[in-house]
Amino acid sequence: MQKARISFISALSLASTAFFFSASSNAASLEEIQENGYIRIAVANEIPYGYITPDNQAKGAGPDIAKLIMDKLGIKEIRWVTTNFGSLIPGLKADRFDMVAAEMAILPQRCAEVHFSEPNTSYGEGLLVAKGNPDNLHKYEDFSDNTLKVAIMAGADQLEMMQALKVDDSRMVTIANNADAISTIATGRAAAYAATSLTVSELASKSDRVEAASDFTDPVVDGQTVRSWGGFAFALTSTDLRDAVNKELLEIKQTEEWKNILTDYGFSETDVEQSPTKTTAQLCAK
Predict the structure, then answer these.
(1) Do 234 and 242 form a contact (C-beta atoms < 8 A)?
(2) How much is the pTM?
């Protein structure tokens, strides 16, 4: 079968038209996508989840698996769209793209707005701190009883975690994307950046001014240790596309290729083993 041809669309080129779509815009059906010969898939430029390289290649756990799935569905071209994480769900609802491959955590409040595939990945949490960890931070709960500020990316689920841990909103600094995290910590705007362990490790490798907090303990919310499960996202009207992706994803997850893709991007053996332990129905349940 011919491999999917990849093209790239900047989200900025689409932003000016997004206003004209209503939140109830009908997404293209799987049949229409197959007839058109291409699908629009969005990423949030987060390494290693879904990002575009300088030479316009889509990479990451989401895009690599999405390419395999589209190949099996006979869709020969993927038109990649980049946007901020907080714009992924609004973009789906406005029909700016057909699918999101950002390994977005499957959460009940998001399930009310979009459809999710079954989980593709699973991952834990982390903290990016200044070199030497001067504030001795090792868990999200450390922000529950001090005056330090913690940075969080707009639209990320760490916001809900911090709120559940009773961290005051006035001590949360919102940044637009991961690229702003290093300067936010290095300049003292916040004492730490809360993100997934993989994101924190990637950011720590880019600068000697920051590091991943050692001996980090995943947060406990309502008596449960927090772990996220990420999947592909679709508009609520894209049930047929979601179902077709789920069918192919289930088969791909039985292969060594799927495991190798995840571990090549830094996912641990535990992450791989945890991926099939939750269903989307369980994760969407309130």
Answers:
(1) yes
(2) 0.80
